[in-house]
Design brief:
The structure holds two protein chains of two kinds.
Chain A: H1 2-14, H2 19-35, E1 50-51, E2 55-57, E3 60-66, E4 72-74, E5 77-79, H3 84-94, E6 99-104, H4 110-122, E7 128-131, E8 133-134
Parallel strand pairs in A: 1-8, 3-6, 6-7
Antiparallel strand pairs in A: 3-4, 4-5
Helix pairs in contact in A: 3-4
Chain B: H1 2-15, H2 20-36, E1 42-47, H3 53-57, E2 64-68, E3 74-76, E4 79-81, H4 86-96, E5 102-106, H5 112-124, E6 130-132
Parallel strand pairs in B: 2-5, 5-6
Antiparallel strand pairs in B: 2-3, 3-4
Helix pairs in contact in B: 4-5
The chains are: A alpha/beta, B alpha/beta.
Chain lengths: 135, 136
């Protein structure tokens, strides 16, 4: 009987201590929660113009794509030009610090770009950039 | 006496909280946040909108005006400029007037490729203050 108890005690001492691993896992969890930024992707692939001086847009939160046929894509859907302002307002409220990046295709016209930029301005977003590919 | 102590010892062990379910939940949350973490890095050029009253009150000739017409031709000072020569022209005008910013007036049906090319040329020429004029 006493020998059995001794064995049990030994087994317990051989068990791995989980506390440090738990600490690490919690710290990783907090890191990923804090750094999680939910970027609204546009949903289509566009041919970006080539540039030499593009900066990385770190705080981009809303991506708006303009297709070669001047369709406006936000959040994986094609949008009516008149509805763009409301959508930007709604998405901007979710992440007020984020900026807008307009992915305008090389062949899209300036008119559509101005419509999107006017909508962003009307929605109160001043930080707007045009996406490009660095050469 | 010895028997009594062992009893208390066993009791304590049974009262310990079982951490396994919490560990499961934490791991699932961890995996969720790792999977949803999107590290999208978008490259782009910032645009200044001439919305501040300061910009509008500036005299017209204080800025470098670049016009893009419907055929994507680039006009500076009433001449058509080759896209490769835009940088040199902006550099020259910027040297004459270091305070001025570049204002781009683009036709409604001009392509965005020409616009971004002009913006890139201006940045290569050292002018980072670029505005797009309101066409309406």
């Amino acid at each position: 009987m006493s020998r059995k108890k001794l064995l049990q005690a030994e087994e317990e001492e051989n068990e791995i201590n989980l506390t440090p691993m738990l600490d690490v896992v919690f710290i990783m969890l907090i890191f990923f929660i804090v750094t999680a930024t939910f970027i609204k992707e546009a949903g289509i692939q566009v041919e970006r113009p080539d540039t030499f001086t593009a900066d990385t847009q770190d705080d981009a939160a809303i991506l708006i794509a303009i297709s070669p046929n001047d369709e406006i894509w936000i959040d994986r859907q094609e949008r009516d030009p008149r509805a763009v302002r409301g959508i930007i307002e709604r998405l901007h409220a979710e992440n007020p610090k984020g900026s807008i990046v307009i992915q305008a295709d090389e062949g899209s016209t300036h008119e559509t770009l101005v419509i999107v930029m006017e909508a962003a301005k009307a929605a109160g977003v001043t930080n707007v950039a045009i996406a490009s590919d660095n050469q | 006496m010895r028997k009594h102590l062992e009893d208390i010892h066993v009791d304590e062990e049974e009262n310990e909280i079982n951490l396994t379910p919490m560990l499961d939940v934490v791991f699932i949350m961890l995996i969720f946040f790792i999977v949803t973490a999107s590290f999208i890095k978008e490259a782009g050029i910032d645009v200044n909108r001439p919305d501040a009253p300061m910009t509008e009150s500036k005299p017209e000739d204080a800025n470098i005006l670049v016009t893009i017409d419907a055929n994507d031709d680039i006009w500076i000072e009433r001449r058509i400029i080759d896209p490769r020569a835009v940088r040199a022209n902006i550099e020259r005008l910027h040297a004459e007037n270091p305070e001025g910013s570049v204002v781009i007036q683009a036709n409604k049906s001009s392509s965005n490729k020409a616009l971004v090319q002009v913006m890139d040329s201006a940045r290569l020429a050292g002018v980072y203050n670029i505005s797009i004029a309101d066409s309406r």
